[in-house]
């Protein structure tokens, strides 16, 4: 028996690469992304994973269809370079909607569309408290992209992140430091889609598994 997360999922990570994190913590954050991704079966008929890194600006490191198996995906995640810059979450959310989940970029109409934001501070570009971040978050949610956020340390603006996510009670997680990220992996996975203790060969994808009556 093993725990297998079951759903047809288009998953994007928007990861803060600002100077406040530090190199060692960056590597721990990447391991968290790899560990969460590894909870899912990776492939064109299961989960697809994209990665947006943000500092002074955001960059789509790869889109949903780049990596088609767990090994290549995890290797790519572990090798994303650290920027040591500022925190342009605004740009990351804009690229999430206009590039990662844009028509023709691999997103599937019947898949769950989820972005997990991982940050250790406040978004501060073009300025602290910019309304553009909230506007781009709203545009993502209006496009059917579920926004979730993990805030690391007390340096995050919890109230603002709760405004950004799709559900303020369900979709925001705060941990004291990056080493505590491992403690929320199963909880986070359960919120994205059902996790069930059955042989993986018997699991079939279900496009609505985090809300349907058959799965909760």
Q: What would CATH call the class?
A: Alpha Beta
- The name of the CATH superfamily reads von Willebrand factor, type A domain
Tally of structural domains: 1
Oligomer classification: single chain
Q: Structural class, from secondary structure content? A: alpha/beta
Report helical residue fraction.
25-40%
CATH topology: Rossmann fold
N-to-C order of helices and strands: EEHEEHHEHEHEHE
- Counting DSSP E segments of at least 2 residues, the number of strands comes to 8
Query: Which residues form runs of ≥5 with pLDDT under 50?
Result: 198-216
Overall residue-averaged pLDDT value: 89
Strand content: 15-25%
**End-to-end C-alpha gap:** 20 Å
Strand order of the largest sheet: 4-3-2-5-6-7
Overall, the morphology is globular
């Amino acid at each position: 028996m093993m725990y297998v997360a079951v759903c047809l999922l288009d998953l994007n990570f928007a990861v803060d690469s600002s100077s406040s994190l530090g190199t060692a913590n960056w590597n721990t954050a990447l391991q968290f992304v790899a560990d969460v991704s590894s909870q899912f079966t990776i492939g064109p008929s299961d989960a697809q994973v994209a990665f947006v890194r943000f500092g002074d600006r955001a960059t789509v490191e790869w889109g949903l269809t780049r990596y088609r198996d767990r090994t290549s995906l995890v290797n790519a995640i572990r090798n994303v370079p650290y920027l040591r810059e500022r925190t342009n979450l605004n740009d990351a959310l804009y690229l999430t909607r206009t590039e990662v989940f844009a028509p023709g970029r691999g997103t599937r109409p019947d898949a769950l569309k989820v972005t997990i934001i991982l940050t250790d501070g406040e978004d501060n570009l073009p300025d602290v408290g910019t309304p553009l971040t909230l506007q781009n978050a709203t545009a993502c949610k209006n496009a059917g992209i579920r926004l979730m956020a993990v805030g690391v340390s007390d340096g995050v603006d919890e109230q603002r992140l709760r405004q950004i996510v799709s559900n303020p009670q369900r979709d925001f997680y705060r941990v004291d430091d990056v080493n505590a990220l491992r403690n929320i992996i199963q909880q986070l996975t359960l919120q994205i889609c059902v996790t069930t203790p059955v042989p993986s060969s018997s699991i079939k994808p279900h496009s609505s598994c985090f809300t349907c009556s058959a799965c909760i």
